[in-house]
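Please go through the sequence and fold tokens given here and tell me how the chain folds. Record follows.
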Amino acid sequence: MFRKLLIANRGEIACRIIATARRLGIATVAVHSDADAGARHVAMADEAVRIGPPPVAESYLRGAAIVQAARDTGADAIHPGYGFLSENPDFVELVEAAGLTFVGPPAAAIRAMGLKDAAKRAMEAAGVPVVPGHHGPEQDPDTLLAAAERIGWPVLIKARAGGGGKGMRRVDRPGDFRAALDSARREAQAAFGDPACLIEKYVASPRHIEIQVFADAHGNVVHLFERDCSLQRRHQKVIEEAPAPGMPAEVRAAMGRAAVEAARAIGYRGAGTVEFIADGTQGLRPDGFWFMEMNTRLQVEHPVTEAITGLDLVALQIRVAAGQPLPFAQHDLDIRGHAFEARIYAEDPARGFLPATGRIGHLRFPPAAEFTPGPVRVDSGVRAGDAITPHYDPMIAKLIVHGPDRDTALARLQAALAATRVAGTVTNIAFLGALARHRDFAAGRVDTGLIERDLDALTAAAEPPEPAIALAALAALGLLAPPAGPDPWDRLTGWRAWGRARQHAHLERAGSRLERVVETLGPGEFRIKGGAAPLALAVSPEGEELALRIDGHSRRAAVARTGATVTVFLDGQDFAFTLPDMLAGPGDSEAAGDVIAAPMPGIVRLLHVAAGDSVRRGQAVMVLEAMKMEHALTAPRDGVVAEVSAAAGMQVDEGMVLVRLEPGDG
């Protein structure tokens, strides 16, 4: 067994690997960029080494620097986690040339599956069913368009390198093909350094089902059953579950055999995932699934497999890398209950899931196990006070639940999401909650188009109820602060010798001003006016929560104030309010919708307009690349472009005005 393990990664996966290594008695070394010097994975590890500035190309992708850090600290193995260098065969060879062990598959196996076109040709040769498509090396746009015509519309353009939904576009008609191909190529080049794409038939009612495989150096290969990853947006997974709903035993066996054969065909070792696309129009069938790709690493969603098998996949990775055989055979494995994983991100579903940045001022999870199976489990690489930066993936946490059956597990997921509280940055928690309550998802009727079909309903921002506005008003006035001391006079906040105190609270939400008049009736008792009807509210603190008595009814809530923002957590929802600067003047042209500003830091990839051009509301004016994905910025109204203050290739900061509009002639 290894004495010291270096983790060539960051965030929650680095923390998760460190937790297992600690249970195995293995010392750990973290690496970090300047932006991560105070990160949680650095604090958890026994040692930490700086490897460069924030950009990944200058830090987490510097293979030579990471290997040198391992040698300098006396580590004898390197675990890559997922992403970054985890599927880079050159890095594997660099690690092994230094006399260190790579906790993962051989370089040859990674190369065999690293490019989707070559991988599919290899799988066809091994007898594994493959999606019809163009998997050849030809990349001429006319050749690819002709291939799409032969396959039949709709088709899917896919970057042959990498994953995570990057470089992937659905195309429904010939006229849209070239623009989609150009966009996919740009995104693939930015994310993977390889713009080449393949073309595949887009499967109707597709289900994304993957099989976890494990192989050792002694010829043993097993599968650990399936995960259903069909709930996706922009080809990125949102909620995963295991086992797949409606999975017949014969289909599970057929998929498992195909996955094991795929691993054997390339001489695999360690943890890997073989991903299949299945036609869900008539239920899952042995002849209705096809190989998509193999991820030669640990997957983000591996905890759901741990939940239903009782295994620690990271521990297995380490033991296999150390030369130990798998401690079980296929017939020893069985499925225990049901599990879900929800990915909590700093992103704004109402704005097309744009990644968000900000400092996490408040972070609370439900009672849960951490980095180990339990009824509720939380894997997170951030803490309250940490910043979500534009340099890395904006994941906050993975919330995993397990139950004896799907209905119980789903109820636990809904409750755990409702009890999760994040303030300081916008998150997708409300979206995940709506998805967990979706009628089709609850019934197990899932496919990759579910989210898109009901996107407006799933991303609709809930209007804050009057009690939430009332609590925000109390927080804005400082009336929820605990007493300054034991003196009973300290409890008389808002007390007046000549009568009840009345104070005006000013709030903003979604660009609208809200005003409430707060009348203090006594310690913790208030009447709030300004809504549809006066509200009588009694508040008493209970730990991190507030016990409420609203017009005779008891409820619970929590409030977090971070800077000029107050976030109220009530009934499983969170409502953020801004405290306006009352000395500021009226809004300028930006408030009137006359500008297009950068919603996040990024690089301008394409400009579609110039000064003097007429634009219509919703028309794309430029493409901004942020966090390795492209985002189209659109005109907020009809008008004429008065000024363009950005150029293609320009790095822009969040809030920077990129285009200014003026009224048109009409």
Notes: The chain has six domains: 4-103, 132-201, 204-336, 337-461, 466-483+499-578, 595-662.
